[in-house]
Predict the structure.
Amino acid sequence: MGFTDQEILETVRMVALETLDIRTTTLGISLFDCADPDLESTCEKVYTKIVHHARRLVEVAESISDDYGVPIINKRIAVTPVSWIAAASGEQDLVPLARALDAAAKEVGVDYIGGYSGYVHKGFTRADDALFDSIPRALAETDHVCSSISLASTKSGLNMDAIARFSQVVLDTARLTADTGGLGCAKLVCFCNVVEDNPFVAGAHLGVGEGETVLNVGVSGPGVVRSAIERLGPDADLLAVAETIKRTAFKITRMGELVGREAAQRLGTSFGIVDISLAPTPAVGDSVSDILELMGVDRTGAPGTTAALALLTDAIKKGGAMASSSVGGLSGAFIPVSEDQGMIDAVADGALSLAKLEAMTTVCSVGLDMVAVPGDTTVDVITGIIADEMAIGMVNNKTTAVRIIPVPGKGPGEMVEWGGLLGTAIVQDPGKFGCRILHERGGRVPAPIQSYRN
């Protein structure tokens, strides 16, 4: 992959002035061969294998950052969903597995480890039952472990029994981590049409069909896109805006793939994908919301926001597809409310509501992300919010997700500080009505007619 002098100079500018970075290098590690009838032996094998394969991940990422001058913010690990490897033991308490993952993450120095996960979009195995029962404690008692659950898909429909049960898991996790503002829920996400090579947490895990190890990269560039639109000015038409975003995404992706392939080579593993989702941070200028407002909406959440976000997401995907044949399935634009200073401000100003956020998720990369709701929100309301988002993904054959955080002791309009990349959240009002009977019915929402394709 060759680079011109102009491309190198442009990348230097983007890093120095426009907050361009590699958001994460995520090493996927298969744990299938760690399954054992004895859970303690499983834990030992899991710890040993992760430490063996990931022991140089941080060192390699830092050396590449030094060599190329590109910041690599997070180093992460993604593993085989633990419900698959725990099944052989038949144990009901899987928290020891979470502790083994956490200990391995601490030993190798990564920021997060994803894969305390399960797939229940059609039903539960005994291991899935044990996983659900253990998630609240696992997230409360560990520092680096992240959990993700597949609850729905276009092919199978919505598992409403699983959604209702997951909603209770969310509330239990918030209760057990009340002293940190329900922070455990920030490490817990559910999906429709889950992506199996996602480098971003909390959804990162290593799905079926992946190799023994694989290196996936997530690139972030809201500041770069923002600067490009700002230079374009307000008089250009939307086709020019789309073309500018597409060209910018092309450059970002090229840089991300270079770093990913180099990291894979130094680690002695294979390169998987580069995910070019615009992942914002609380830093000034590193905001997807700012991009939408430069495109022409008065405030994120105002009329026109969903259309602007659709253009942004599509142009990023097109730019990435031009630059690489290994673009990840989540590429586009993330809208994690607490992690984007512009969106935090929009919520504070009353421009961005929970209902408008849901509308925006029909066209963005994932879904309702890092949304804070009152700590006394009832389980049926959580179920309804998740089911609505899963339905959007199911019907539109796209990936959608929910990372919702009931903040203990907080009500609508109050703020909670989580710090770092997790940022600040303003508790949003889910409304005074719920869906108790829908929550209690259970069963499944059948797959839509468009799923019958072959």
